[in-house]
Amino acid sequence: MGDSAYSFSLTTFSRTGKLLQIEYALNAVANGRTSLGICAKDGVVIATDKKLSSSLVDLDQVSKIQKINEGSGFVYSGLGPDYRVLVRKARKSAQSYHLQYREHKPVSQLVKSTASVMQEYTQSGGVRPFGVSLLVAGIDADANKTPRLYQVDPSGAYFAWKATAVGKNYINAKNFLEKRYQDDMELEDAIHTALLTLREGFEGEMTKDNIEVGIVSQTDGKFRVLTPDQIQDYLDETS
User: Fold this and answer.
1) d(CA 90, CA 189)
2) What distances in angstroms separate CA 202 from CA 4, 69, 74, 139, 198, one per listed residue?
């Protein structure tokens, strides 16, 4: 009996020790638009391609980068509806933490709680794994206010990264980041590098309207999404 016999079962391991539905969820991520993140010494930048198949779609109503609490934000590659569910759960968790402790939920705990939700959907009957990988940007709650970038996969596994990419062109994007990344990189340089990396595998012309960029700075610890005009300024600088 081959692995195909287990392909429809989420809760049963195949004979080779795989949960094939999780591998299929990763395929859904790999078919999604490219998203990437870079952790600089004074902040974090996340960026994504939000180009759509039809020019008739109102791009102003399409948002892939979401603020979760004051100091952290998500971006994804994969299935948008699944992402909305995780964003809603993460915001609810962050708000509950704030009501209880009167402070913002640290990004490391936000990642752990979100990863736990995703992991639960890999061992429960009647559900399927989330078809998204998340990149999470934030500032740690330690004395040094350390910038952090995390990746959370459909299996519930999460990792801290200096720079990474997910989605359709993630291999080329990671190779580009490995060549460009420096440990002493500042946030402004990281934004330029993020745009150059996106441009490497971009289909067609990259404009302020078909990409999104979110940043969190060590200075104020607040996560924000750049406006199209701000993105255009950075595009002009990198061209």
Assistant:
1) 29
2) 35, 30, 21, 29, 6
Report which residue type is found at 114.
T
pLDDT in tens, 82-122: 999 999 999 999 999 999 999 999 999 999 999 999 999 98
- DSSP label of 159: E
| Full strand arrangement of the beta sheet holding 66-69 | 66-69, 72-78, 132-139, 147-152, 158-160
Residue 51: the pLDDT is: 81
Q: How many residues does the chain have?
A: 239
Q: Tell me the two tokens of residue 237.
A: 């600088």
Q: Determine contact, residues 190/153, Cβ cutoff 8 Å.
A: no
Query: What's the DSSP call for residue 33?
Result: P
Cβ atoms of 137 and 46 within 8 Å: the answer is yes
Which amino acid is present at 155? S
Q: Which pLDDT belongs to residue 1?
A: 45
Angle at 151 between CA 15 and CA 194, to 5 degrees: 130
Check whether 135 has a pLDDT greater than 50: yes
